[in-house]
Specification:
364 residues, alpha+beta, ten-stranded antiparallel beta sheet, four-stranded antiparallel beta sheet
Length: 364
């Protein structure tokens, strides 16, 4: 009996070892590790991000998986190799837009897509959303303009959802009122650069490829200039001692959440100068991983257990125009749906989400 128990334990340990594996993601040109690569498993659920060494520990059941990172081509991988190579993308400079003082407000129209997932016990929730979002900027003091209107506002929405409960899948297109839309964090974490100029760090101007500003407990801002692209990445928990944050506002709403990781990256086309503007803005990426413990959240999803939630958002500016104060006021209060504009050379969806979208689109 004792011998059988030992054999069983050894077999279990061996099974765990071969079912999970550490992978390193690297640049195919210079072999450098890539930080912040997002993995989306074969079911469409977000599996995690690579760490500061470009590594991630994944279960083999996640493969084939899709991987995404600003500045690189998305790809689907099968998990056989220890090191996964990503191909850098090339970018072209956009035309510079010149305006006059009679049209002081910049209107930024963006295409946004959001992958969200929630896991509670054996239940899995998935939400995929696409938005057309509108933002307004004014750099000079402009009477009648409100800075809060720089926050992207959805003016067109498509939603697709899957719920796996007790081994049974249910797919549908949820409305805004459906509980599953609480998986969305678009309204809270997506934004566009609002500074008139984004300054490139002096160290990078002098020729370095990267630079870092440290917070209390880890890197706070990380800068990189590579392959014609400048990126600024932030870790929102860099000043949190225990690497967790439970915002009080959510507690008041009965939605207690522990944010366990949160990052954002803004990328700009390199214009050859030491300053970048909204006209150079290429793409934004926003990640959040949290555990929902609030009674309201548990009630909404019909569970007594905490809900592990992940969100990954991509924002692409597709149109930048100028408008007068009168035009701005009229546009910001007009919630007529804006037709979808898809960015040039947009990366493909993960296969699971593409399949979900195609099935539900056919049913409509």
């Amino acid at each position: 009996m004792k011998r059988l128990l030992i054999i069983h334990c050894l077999f279990a340990a061996f099974t765990i070892q071969i079912s999970a594996k550490v992978y390193t993601i690297a640049d195919s040109i210079d072999n450098s590790p890539i930080v912040g690569v997002t993995f989306i498993g074969k079911s469409g659920v977000i599996a995690g991000l690579t760490d500061n060494n470009g590594s991630i520990d994944l279960n083999l059941s996640e493969f084939p998986a899709s991987i995404k990172c600003i500045g690189y081509e998305d790809k689907t991988i099968n998990g056989i190799c220890d090191t996964i190579w990503m191909q850098p993308l090339s970018y072209e400079l956009k035309e510079i837009i010149v305006t006059n003082k009679e049209r002081p407000v910049i209107r930024v129209l963006s295409y946004v897509r959001e992958y969200s997932s929630g896991i509670s016990g054996k239940d899995t929730l998935q939400l995929y959303c696409e938005y057309m979002a509108e933002s307004f900027l004014a750099y000079e003091k402009t009477k009648g303009y409100k800075s809060c209107d720089a926050k992207p506002t959805a003016k067109g929405v498509k939603r697709y959802a899957r719920i796996s409960k007790n081994g049974i899948d249910s797919i549908f297109c949820p409305s805004y009122q459906d509980d599953i839309t609480d998986l969305s964090w678009f309204d809270f974490i997506a934004f566009i650069p609002t500074d008139k100029d984004t300054n490139i760090p002096e160290k990078i101007i002098r020729g370095a490829e990267t630079d870092t500003i440290h917070g209390k407990y880890g890197p706070k801002f990380m800068f990189k200039k590579k392959n014609g692209l400048f990126t600024k990445t932030a870790d929102v928990l860099s000043d949190k001692k225990d690497r967790k944050w439970s915002p009080w506002i959510f507690k008041l709403l009965g939605m207690t959440v522990d944010i366990e990781s949160g990052t954002w990256t803004l990328s700009f086309n390199d214009n050859g100068t030491d300053k970048l503007s909204i006209y150079d803005f290429n793409r934004g990426c926003y990640n959040i991983h949290l555990t929902g413990r609030g009674k309201w959240l548990k009630k909404a999803f019909g569970t007594k257990e905490p809900i592990e939630m992940n969100t990954y958002i991509e924002l692409y500016p597709v149109e930048i125009t100028h408008c007068s104060i009168a035009e701005y006021k009229e546009a910001k209060d007009d919630f007529t749906a804006i037709p979808f504009i898809y960015p040039d050379k947009i990366q493909p969806l993960s296969p699971a989400i593409q399949n979900l979208k195609e099935i539900l689109t056919r049913k409509q």
